[in-house]
Design brief:
It is built from 13 helices and 10 strands. The protein is α/β, with parallel strands linked by helices. It starts with a strand and ends with a helix.
Protein backbone atom coordinates (compact mmCIF):
# COMPACT_ATOMS: atom_id res chain seq x y z
CA UNK A 1 0.00 0.00 0.00
CA UNK A 2 1.34 3.44 -0.96
CA UNK A 3 1.81 6.16 1.65
CA UNK A 4 -0.11 9.31 0.65
CA UNK A 5 -2.18 10.71 -2.18
CA UNK A 6 -4.16 13.92 -2.65
CA UNK A 7 -7.72 14.12 -3.97
CA UNK A 8 -8.83 17.59 -5.05
CA UNK A 9 -12.56 18.36 -4.98
CA UNK A 10 -13.98 21.29 -6.95
CA UNK A 11 -16.62 23.20 -5.00
CA UNK A 12 -18.91 26.07 -5.87
CA UNK A 13 -20.41 27.55 -2.73
CA UNK A 14 -20.84 24.34 -0.68
CA UNK A 15 -21.75 22.08 -3.61
CA UNK A 16 -19.33 19.76 -5.36
CA UNK A 17 -19.26 19.89 -9.14
CA UNK A 18 -19.50 16.07 -9.12
CA UNK A 19 -19.94 14.63 -5.64
CA UNK A 20 -20.40 11.05 -6.88
CA UNK A 21 -17.06 11.18 -8.68
CA UNK A 22 -15.45 12.80 -5.63
CA UNK A 23 -16.61 10.05 -3.29
CA UNK A 24 -15.55 7.36 -5.76
CA UNK A 25 -12.05 8.83 -6.08
CA UNK A 26 -11.72 9.25 -2.31
CA UNK A 27 -12.88 5.67 -1.68
CA UNK A 28 -10.58 4.16 -4.30
CA UNK A 29 -7.62 6.14 -2.99
CA UNK A 30 -8.30 5.01 0.58
CA UNK A 31 -8.06 1.36 -0.46
CA UNK A 32 -4.64 1.86 -2.01
CA UNK A 33 -3.01 4.47 0.27
CA UNK A 34 -2.33 4.79 3.98
CA UNK A 35 -3.39 8.43 3.99
CA UNK A 36 -5.70 10.41 1.70
CA UNK A 37 -5.42 14.19 1.66
CA UNK A 38 -8.68 15.86 0.63
CA UNK A 39 -7.95 19.30 -0.79
CA UNK A 40 -10.77 21.83 -1.32
CA UNK A 41 -8.67 23.72 -3.89
CA UNK A 42 -8.34 27.01 -1.96
CA UNK A 43 -12.14 27.50 -1.83
CA UNK A 44 -13.19 28.57 1.70
CA UNK A 45 -16.18 26.25 1.97
CA UNK A 46 -17.78 25.21 5.27
CA UNK A 47 -16.95 21.49 5.21
CA UNK A 48 -19.98 20.70 7.35
CA UNK A 49 -22.27 21.95 4.60
CA UNK A 50 -21.05 19.79 1.68
CA UNK A 51 -24.03 17.54 0.81
CA UNK A 52 -24.01 13.93 -0.35
CA UNK A 53 -27.62 12.77 -0.72
CA UNK A 54 -30.67 14.03 1.13
CA UNK A 55 -29.65 15.19 4.60
CA UNK A 56 -26.43 13.18 4.46
CA UNK A 57 -23.23 15.21 4.24
CA UNK A 58 -19.82 14.37 2.79
CA UNK A 59 -18.38 14.15 6.31
CA UNK A 60 -21.02 11.50 7.13
CA UNK A 61 -19.79 9.48 4.15
CA UNK A 62 -16.21 9.67 5.42
CA UNK A 63 -17.35 8.51 8.88
CA UNK A 64 -19.17 5.55 7.32
CA UNK A 65 -16.18 4.58 5.18
CA UNK A 66 -13.98 4.50 8.28
CA UNK A 67 -16.47 2.42 10.26
CA UNK A 68 -17.07 -0.08 7.46
CA UNK A 69 -13.38 -0.61 6.75
CA UNK A 70 -12.09 -0.33 10.31
CA UNK A 71 -9.97 2.70 9.35
CA UNK A 72 -8.96 5.41 11.80
CA UNK A 73 -10.63 8.67 10.83
CA UNK A 74 -7.15 10.23 10.64
CA UNK A 75 -6.68 8.21 7.47
CA UNK A 76 -8.44 11.13 5.78
CA UNK A 77 -6.67 14.44 6.20
CA UNK A 78 -8.65 17.49 5.09
CA UNK A 79 -7.07 20.73 3.94
CA UNK A 80 -9.64 23.45 4.58
CA UNK A 81 -9.10 26.92 3.10
CA UNK A 82 -11.84 28.40 5.26
CA UNK A 83 -10.32 30.39 8.16
CA UNK A 84 -13.51 29.89 10.19
CA UNK A 85 -13.57 26.10 9.95
CA UNK A 86 -14.04 24.63 13.43
CA UNK A 87 -11.13 22.46 14.57
CA UNK A 88 -13.52 19.71 15.70
CA UNK A 89 -14.91 19.33 12.17
CA UNK A 90 -12.62 16.36 11.50
CA UNK A 91 -9.85 14.68 13.56
CA UNK A 92 -7.15 15.39 10.95
CA UNK A 93 -7.66 18.93 9.67
CA UNK A 94 -5.43 21.78 8.54
CA UNK A 95 -6.94 25.27 8.30
CA UNK A 96 -5.37 27.51 5.67
CA UNK A 97 -6.13 30.67 3.73
CA UNK A 98 -4.87 31.52 0.24
CA UNK A 99 -3.99 35.19 -0.30
CA UNK A 100 -3.19 35.13 -4.03
CA UNK A 101 -6.58 36.23 -5.47
CA UNK A 102 -6.82 38.99 -2.86
CA UNK A 103 -3.32 40.43 -3.25
CA UNK A 104 -3.15 40.18 -7.04
CA UNK A 105 -5.34 43.27 -7.42
CA UNK A 106 -2.65 45.33 -5.70
CA UNK A 107 -0.36 44.74 -8.68
CA UNK A 108 -2.81 46.23 -11.14
CA UNK A 109 -1.89 49.56 -12.71
CA UNK A 110 -4.98 51.52 -11.80
CA UNK A 111 -5.63 55.22 -11.29
CA UNK A 112 -8.63 56.30 -9.27
CA UNK A 113 -10.41 58.92 -11.36
CA UNK A 114 -14.02 58.80 -10.26
CA UNK A 115 -16.54 60.06 -12.78
CA UNK A 116 -19.73 58.56 -11.38
CA UNK A 117 -22.51 58.06 -13.90
CA UNK A 118 -24.02 54.83 -12.54
CA UNK A 119 -25.35 54.05 -9.09
CA UNK A 120 -24.34 50.39 -9.02
CA UNK A 121 -21.96 47.87 -10.46
CA UNK A 122 -22.51 44.11 -10.33
CA UNK A 123 -19.90 42.03 -12.13
CA UNK A 124 -20.76 38.36 -12.56
CA UNK A 125 -19.08 35.60 -14.55
CA UNK A 126 -20.34 32.21 -13.34
CA UNK A 127 -23.91 32.18 -12.09
CA UNK A 128 -25.16 31.29 -8.63
CA UNK A 129 -28.65 31.78 -7.28
CA UNK A 130 -27.86 35.01 -5.32
CA UNK A 131 -26.04 36.43 -8.34
CA UNK A 132 -28.97 35.51 -10.55
CA UNK A 133 -31.48 37.12 -8.17
CA UNK A 134 -29.52 40.32 -7.53
CA UNK A 135 -28.59 40.73 -11.21
CA UNK A 136 -32.19 40.30 -12.31
CA UNK A 137 -33.40 42.63 -9.54
CA UNK A 138 -31.00 45.39 -10.58
CA UNK A 139 -31.64 44.75 -14.25
CA UNK A 140 -35.41 44.97 -13.78
CA UNK A 141 -35.74 47.81 -11.26
CA UNK A 142 -32.61 49.87 -11.90
CA UNK A 143 -31.23 48.87 -15.29
CA UNK A 144 -30.35 52.43 -16.36
CA UNK A 145 -28.54 52.98 -13.07
CA UNK A 146 -26.54 49.76 -13.15
CA UNK A 147 -23.36 48.69 -14.93
CA UNK A 148 -23.32 44.92 -15.03
CA UNK A 149 -21.73 41.86 -16.52
CA UNK A 150 -23.19 38.36 -16.52
CA UNK A 151 -21.04 36.08 -18.62
CA UNK A 152 -23.51 33.37 -19.51
CA UNK A 153 -24.90 32.69 -22.99
CA UNK A 154 -28.30 31.42 -24.11
CA UNK A 155 -26.46 29.63 -26.94
CA UNK A 156 -24.70 27.44 -24.38
CA UNK A 157 -26.91 24.70 -22.94
CA UNK A 158 -24.45 24.13 -20.11
CA UNK A 159 -24.67 27.77 -19.07
CA UNK A 160 -28.45 27.65 -19.03
CA UNK A 161 -28.47 24.44 -17.00
CA UNK A 162 -26.17 25.97 -14.37
CA UNK A 163 -27.91 29.28 -13.72
CA UNK A 164 -28.97 27.89 -10.32
CA UNK A 165 -32.62 28.82 -10.79
CA UNK A 166 -33.84 25.75 -8.87
CA UNK A 167 -31.68 26.73 -5.88
CA UNK A 168 -33.07 30.29 -6.10
CA UNK A 169 -36.62 28.98 -5.86
CA UNK A 170 -35.70 26.60 -3.05
CA UNK A 171 -33.98 29.26 -0.94
CA UNK A 172 -36.70 31.88 -1.26
CA UNK A 173 -39.38 29.28 -0.62
CA UNK A 174 -37.48 28.18 2.50
CA UNK A 175 -37.93 31.64 4.06
CA UNK A 176 -41.52 32.00 2.85
CA UNK A 177 -40.35 34.70 0.48
CA UNK A 178 -41.65 33.66 -2.92
CA UNK A 179 -43.22 37.11 -3.33
CA UNK A 180 -39.67 38.35 -3.85
CA UNK A 181 -39.12 36.05 -6.85
CA UNK A 182 -39.95 37.75 -10.14
CA UNK A 183 -39.65 35.15 -12.87
CA UNK A 184 -40.36 37.77 -15.53
CA UNK A 185 -37.38 39.81 -14.31
CA UNK A 186 -35.19 36.70 -14.40
CA UNK A 187 -36.45 35.95 -17.89
CA UNK A 188 -35.64 39.47 -19.05
CA UNK A 189 -32.10 39.13 -17.71
CA UNK A 190 -31.66 35.84 -19.57
CA UNK A 191 -32.87 37.45 -22.79
CA UNK A 192 -30.13 40.09 -22.45
CA UNK A 193 -27.31 37.55 -22.02
CA UNK A 194 -24.41 37.55 -22.44
CA UNK A 195 -23.60 40.82 -20.68
CA UNK A 196 -19.88 41.15 -21.39
CA UNK A 197 -17.33 42.90 -23.57
CA UNK A 198 -15.18 39.77 -23.54
CA UNK A 199 -14.15 38.41 -26.93
CA UNK A 200 -14.37 34.81 -25.69
CA UNK A 201 -16.73 32.59 -27.69
CA UNK A 202 -19.75 31.70 -25.57
CA UNK A 203 -21.33 29.04 -27.78
CA UNK A 204 -22.46 25.53 -26.94
CA UNK A 205 -18.93 24.17 -27.41
CA UNK A 206 -17.74 25.95 -24.27
CA UNK A 207 -17.81 24.05 -20.99
CA UNK A 208 -20.54 25.05 -18.52
CA UNK A 209 -17.87 26.74 -16.38
CA UNK A 210 -14.96 28.62 -17.83
CA UNK A 211 -11.44 27.40 -17.45
CA UNK A 212 -10.21 29.83 -14.79
CA UNK A 213 -6.55 28.90 -15.18
CA UNK A 214 -5.97 31.77 -17.61
CA UNK A 215 -3.48 34.48 -16.67
CA UNK A 216 -4.77 37.64 -15.04
CA UNK A 217 -4.24 39.74 -18.17
CA UNK A 218 -6.84 37.65 -20.00
CA UNK A 219 -10.04 39.42 -21.01
CA UNK A 220 -11.99 36.99 -18.82
CA UNK A 221 -9.85 37.54 -15.75
CA UNK A 222 -11.72 38.81 -12.65
CA UNK A 223 -9.11 41.57 -12.55
CA UNK A 224 -9.12 42.38 -16.28
CA UNK A 225 -8.45 46.02 -17.14
CA UNK A 226 -11.97 46.38 -18.51
CA UNK A 227 -13.50 45.31 -15.20
CA UNK A 228 -11.18 47.49 -13.12
CA UNK A 229 -11.86 50.62 -15.18
CA UNK A 230 -15.62 50.22 -14.74
CA UNK A 231 -15.21 51.07 -11.07
CA UNK A 232 -14.35 54.68 -11.90
CA UNK A 233 -17.91 55.12 -13.17
CA UNK A 234 -19.95 53.50 -10.38
CA UNK A 235 -20.86 54.64 -6.89
CA UNK A 236 -21.36 51.25 -5.21
CA UNK A 237 -20.36 47.69 -6.06
CA UNK A 238 -22.79 44.87 -5.27
CA UNK A 239 -20.19 42.24 -4.38
CA UNK A 240 -21.35 38.64 -4.87
CA UNK A 241 -18.93 36.23 -3.23
CA UNK A 242 -18.56 32.62 -4.35
CA UNK A 243 -18.96 31.10 -0.89
CA UNK A 244 -21.87 32.27 1.28
CA UNK A 245 -23.40 29.25 3.05
CA UNK A 246 -22.64 28.24 6.62
CA UNK A 247 -19.70 29.33 8.73
CA UNK A 248 -17.20 30.54 6.15
CA UNK A 249 -15.59 33.68 4.83
CA UNK A 250 -14.32 34.54 1.36
CA UNK A 251 -11.77 37.35 1.08
CA UNK A 252 -10.66 37.52 -2.53
CA UNK A 253 -10.35 39.73 -5.61
CA UNK A 254 -14.03 40.73 -5.58
CA UNK A 255 -13.75 42.76 -2.39
CA UNK A 256 -10.14 43.71 -3.19
CA UNK A 257 -11.35 45.47 -6.36
CA UNK A 258 -13.47 47.75 -4.16
CA UNK A 259 -10.52 48.53 -1.89
CA UNK A 260 -8.13 49.23 -4.75
CA UNK A 261 -10.59 51.41 -6.67
CA UNK A 262 -11.86 53.31 -3.59
CA UNK A 263 -15.43 52.11 -4.16
CA UNK A 264 -18.17 51.67 -1.53
CA UNK A 265 -19.85 48.27 -1.46
CA UNK A 266 -22.60 46.03 -0.19
CA UNK A 267 -21.75 42.34 0.03
CA UNK A 268 -23.75 39.22 -0.72
CA UNK A 269 -21.55 36.92 1.32
CA UNK A 270 -21.72 34.74 4.42
CA UNK A 271 -23.18 36.04 7.66
CA UNK A 272 -20.71 38.28 9.49
CA UNK A 273 -18.66 39.16 6.40
CA UNK A 274 -18.52 42.88 7.22
CA UNK A 275 -17.59 42.06 10.81
CA UNK A 276 -14.70 39.93 9.54
CA UNK A 277 -13.49 42.86 7.43
CA UNK A 278 -13.54 45.03 10.56
CA UNK A 279 -11.38 42.44 12.32
CA UNK A 280 -8.80 42.82 9.56
CA UNK A 281 -8.77 46.61 9.92
CA UNK A 282 -11.17 47.68 7.18
CA UNK A 283 -14.09 50.09 7.57
CA UNK A 284 -17.61 49.81 6.19
CA UNK A 285 -20.57 52.15 5.81
CA UNK A 286 -22.92 51.66 8.77
CA UNK A 287 -23.08 55.43 9.39
CA UNK A 288 -24.50 55.96 5.90
CA UNK A 289 -26.84 53.02 5.32
CA UNK A 290 -28.20 50.09 7.27
CA UNK A 291 -25.64 47.29 7.52
CA UNK A 292 -27.74 45.06 9.74
CA UNK A 293 -28.03 42.82 6.67
CA UNK A 294 -24.68 41.41 7.81
CA UNK A 295 -26.55 39.50 10.52
CA UNK A 296 -28.55 37.68 7.85
CA UNK A 297 -27.71 35.03 5.28
CA UNK A 298 -28.90 33.45 2.04
CA UNK A 299 -32.24 34.66 0.59
CA UNK A 300 -33.02 37.02 3.47
CA UNK A 301 -29.65 38.70 2.95
CA UNK A 302 -30.53 39.26 -0.73
CA UNK A 303 -33.80 40.92 0.27
CA UNK A 304 -32.13 43.17 2.85
CA UNK A 305 -29.47 44.23 0.33
CA UNK A 306 -32.21 45.09 -2.17
CA UNK A 307 -33.63 47.57 0.36
CA UNK A 308 -30.29 49.42 0.45
CA UNK A 309 -30.17 49.35 -3.34
CA UNK A 310 -33.64 50.90 -3.58
CA UNK A 311 -32.77 53.71 -1.16
CA UNK A 312 -29.54 54.57 -2.97
CA UNK A 313 -31.37 54.45 -6.30
CA UNK A 314 -33.58 57.32 -5.13
CA UNK A 315 -30.57 59.67 -5.17
CA UNK A 316 -29.67 61.54 -8.34
CA UNK A 317 -26.09 61.61 -9.62
CA UNK A 318 -25.26 64.91 -7.93
CA UNK A 319 -26.48 63.54 -4.60
CA UNK A 320 -24.46 60.37 -5.15
CA UNK A 321 -21.33 62.42 -5.72
CA UNK A 322 -21.93 64.35 -2.48
CA UNK A 323 -22.44 61.08 -0.64
CA UNK A 324 -19.26 59.69 -2.16
CA UNK A 325 -17.34 62.76 -0.94
CA UNK A 326 -18.61 62.06 2.58
CA UNK A 327 -17.34 58.48 2.28
CA UNK A 328 -13.93 59.47 0.98
CA UNK A 329 -12.19 58.97 4.31
CA UNK A 330 -13.51 55.39 4.49
CA UNK A 331 -12.60 54.28 0.98
CA UNK A 332 -9.14 55.87 1.24
CA UNK A 333 -8.55 54.17 4.59
CA UNK A 334 -9.56 50.83 3.05
CA UNK A 335 -7.15 51.27 0.17
CA UNK A 336 -4.29 52.15 2.52
CA UNK A 337 -5.08 49.18 4.76
CA UNK A 338 -5.36 46.89 1.74
CA UNK A 339 -1.97 47.91 0.35
CA UNK A 340 -0.46 47.64 3.84
CA UNK A 341 -1.64 44.03 4.14
CA UNK A 342 -0.51 43.17 0.62
CA UNK A 343 2.95 44.45 1.51
CA UNK A 344 3.37 41.79 4.19
CA UNK A 345 5.28 38.59 3.59
CA UNK A 346 2.92 36.00 2.11
CA UNK A 347 3.25 33.41 4.88
CA UNK A 348 3.02 36.05 7.60
CA UNK A 349 -0.07 37.61 6.01
CA UNK A 350 -1.91 34.32 5.53
CA UNK A 351 -1.18 33.22 9.10
CA UNK A 352 -2.33 36.58 10.47
CA UNK A 353 -5.66 36.34 8.63
CA UNK A 354 -6.31 32.81 9.88
CA UNK A 355 -5.29 33.66 13.46
CA UNK A 356 -7.35 36.86 13.69
CA UNK A 357 -10.50 35.43 12.18
CA UNK A 358 -10.29 32.25 14.20
CA UNK A 359 -9.73 34.08 17.48
CA UNK A 360 -12.69 36.35 16.71
CA UNK A 361 -15.03 33.43 15.97
CA UNK A 362 -14.15 31.48 19.13
Amino acid sequence: MKDTTTIAIHLYNHHSMDIVDDVMRITNAAHTHKKVIIDTMTEPVDLKQIPWKGKTKLLDVLHTLCEQNNWPREKFHIESWNPLQETDTWPSLQVLWGSQPFVYVADKVFTVNKSIDKHFGIYVSNSSWPRLWLSSYLGHHHQNKTDQTFVRSTANAGHMASLDLDALLHNFSSIGGMEHVDLAAIGNLIKRLPLTTSKIMLDEKQHMHFNTRFDHAHTMSPTADDIMQRYNHIFCDVVCETMFTGSCVTIDEKIARCFMTETPFVAMASKGFLSHLHTLGFKTFHDHWDESYDYTSDALRCVEISKIIDKLACLDISELKKLYDSLMHIVKHNKERYLELCGMQKNEFEKMVVDRLRSKSQ
